[in-house]
């Protein structure tokens, strides 16, 4: 497995990480046995970074990862320190799963971590981060509370998620920030304008989620998918004429991938990998076959001609629809 650094002051990690959300939430039903098998397969392939959130399935995802790490299939070949667990916290949900706010007060930070450690059955979290900026709490207070947990040995490193340049600077003045988790893909390139240069100036790495835009540019999505509990049914890019437009972009990308002899998903992931050694894509595979396909991106070398062809197929800002609905977009510090 290729290695990359998480920022100037962070740890070495695998060039690809595994985003675990879909194993518990947001994309409809998943298979528990297949999820655990996928986690084991990722570890066997050298994937070090596992990304989760305490609100994914209201704790289910953390417990699932805890079970996978404690399973004999993992412990026969691996140790706890063979993986790095990245956890987001702060999103508040009611018993029906509705989103009801955000809480990143120092007391809430420490309470959330206590439950996370218990659910995961570990004694520390490798990277701990607020999932969003709490508009009612100065970022200095939130980061300061996590810094206390670093000093106490419960957290190794501090990350952030979906924040803008001003917040990054204020946070980094309190404690080193190893990475910013933010959506980045061929059709989500907003961070290139200001946030990515700021991260590079401050020595902050990028863990890129949504590299396949929640499956939209995976080459596997088609009209009629995403119903019921799958939140993509309500996502602007997956609706009506927006979906038709975006799937047409995918077909253009498919032609480039075919000429290269790779899949659409592989060329899309390889494009993100090619944007800099400080970027670690998080792949959202929840099945072993999808994991294997995504790992194949590591064998794809994109030439200058390849990158130009990809740019012609999917020009910057060519996607139709926002990446979240209007309410969620308004809550993103990174979009201000």
TrEMBL record:
SUPFAM superfamilies: NAD(P)-linked oxidoreductase. Pfam families: Aldo_ket_red. Transmembrane segments: none annotated. Keywords: Oxidoreductase. One of its GO terms (cellular component) is cytoplasm. The keyword Oxidoreductase applies. The lineage of its organism: Bacteria, Pseudomonadati, Pseudomonadota, Alphaproteobacteria, Rhodospirillales. Residues 16-313 form the NADP-dependent oxidoreductase domain. GO terms for molecular function: oxidoreductase activity. Coiled coil: none annotated. The keyword Nucleotidyltransferase does not apply. This is Aldo/keto reductase. It comes from the Bacteria.
């Amino acid at each position: 497995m290729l290695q990359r650094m998480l920022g100037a002051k962070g740890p070495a990690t695998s060039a690809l990480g595994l985003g675990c959300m879909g194993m518990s939430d947001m994309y409809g039903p998943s298979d528990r046995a297949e999820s655990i098998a996928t986690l084991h397969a990722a570890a066997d392939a050298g994937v070090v970074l596992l990304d989760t959130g305490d609100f994914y399935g209201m704790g289910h995802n953390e417990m699932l990862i805890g079970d996978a790490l404690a399973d004999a299939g993992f412990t026969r070949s691996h140790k706890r320190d063979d993986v790095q667990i990245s956890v987001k916290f702060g999103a508040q949900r009611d018993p029906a799963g509705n989103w009801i706010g955000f809480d990143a007060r120092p007391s809430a930070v420490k309470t959330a971590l206590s439950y996370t450690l218990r659910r995961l059955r570990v004694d520390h979290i490798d990277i701990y981060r607020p999932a969003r900026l709490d508009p009612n709490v100065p970022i200095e207070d939130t980061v300061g509370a996590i810094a206390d947990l670093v000093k106490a040995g419960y957290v190794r490193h501090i990350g952030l998620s979906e924040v803008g340049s001003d917040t990054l600077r204020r946070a980094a003045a309190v404690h080193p920030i190893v990475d910013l988790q933010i959506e980045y893909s061929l059709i989500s390139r907003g961070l290139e304008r200001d946030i990515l240069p700021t991260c590079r100036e401050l020595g902050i790495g990028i863990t890129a989620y949504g590299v396949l835009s929640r499956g939209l540019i995976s080459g596997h999505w088609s009209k009629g998918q995403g119903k019921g509990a799958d939140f993509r049914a309500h996502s602007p890019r997956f609706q009506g004429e927006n979906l038709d437009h975006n799937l047409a972009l995918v077909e253009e990308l498919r032609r480039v991938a075919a000429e290269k002899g790779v899949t659409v998903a592989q060329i899309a992931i390889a494009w993100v990998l090619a944007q800099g050694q400080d970027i670690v894509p998080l792949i959202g595979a929840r099945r072993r076959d999808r994991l294997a396909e995504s790992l194949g991106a590591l064998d794809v070398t994109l030439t200058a001609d390849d990158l130009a062809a990809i740019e012609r197929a999917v020009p910057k800002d060519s996607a139709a629809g926002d990446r979240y609905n209007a309410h969620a977009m308004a809550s993103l510090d990174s979009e201000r």
